[in-house]
Specification:
Nucleoside Triphosphate Pyrophosphohydrolase; 159 residues; mainly beta
């Protein structure tokens, strides 16, 4: 059995009316792509605590009203190592503070009809439209080292 590292992370999308906030990553994993706001869950943190902390660190806002929209899981090769990454996905509708640029991210509002999927990770176009319709999802994506999609599934979570 090969050694696969597991990483638990969070991702939050700020939503107001018909817009969502995405961040352009300035460095590290995902550099040069738009993504939601988030990062690794630290030891002892709940996914919600990590999501709030990461939002404060990356764009200087504190989500105060949010809902968990599901989980997205990846099997990917990163720097030559196989990783299993899971992100807990949230939509925030109220927050304290105004989104500001940090050393890691440049926040930008997009109309839901003009989301820049071509500048995002290749999986986003499969799950994000469902989430923006208010559907909760469980999704799985497998990528090779060049970020070519090998396999995927997206299921709507029925109540």
């Amino acid at each position: 059995m090969e050694n696969i590292s597991k990483l638990e992370t969070t991702l939050v999308l700020l939503r107001k009316d018909n817009e969502i906030l995405l961040g352009m990553k300035k460095r590290g994993f995902g550099e040069g792509r738009y993504n939601g706001i988030g990062g690794k869950i630290k030891s002892g943190e709940t996914p919600e605590e990590a999501m709030v902390r990461e939002s404060q660190e990356e764009i200087a806002v504190k989500p105060v009203e949010y809902i968990k929209m599901g989980k997205v899981e990846f099997l990917e090769l990163y720097k030559g190592k196989k990783e299993n990454v899971v992100f807990h996905l949230y939509i925030a509708t109220k927050w304290e503070g105004e989104p500001k640029e940090s050393d890691e991210m440049i926040p930008k509002w997009f109309s839901i009809s003009e989301i820049p999927y071509q500048q995002m990770f290749p999986d986003d176009k499969y799950w994000l439209p469902l989430v923006l319709e208010g559907k909760k999802v469980n999704a799985f994506f497998e990528f090779d080292e060049q970020w070519s999609l090998l396999n995927y599934s997206v299921e709507e979570i029925k109540k």
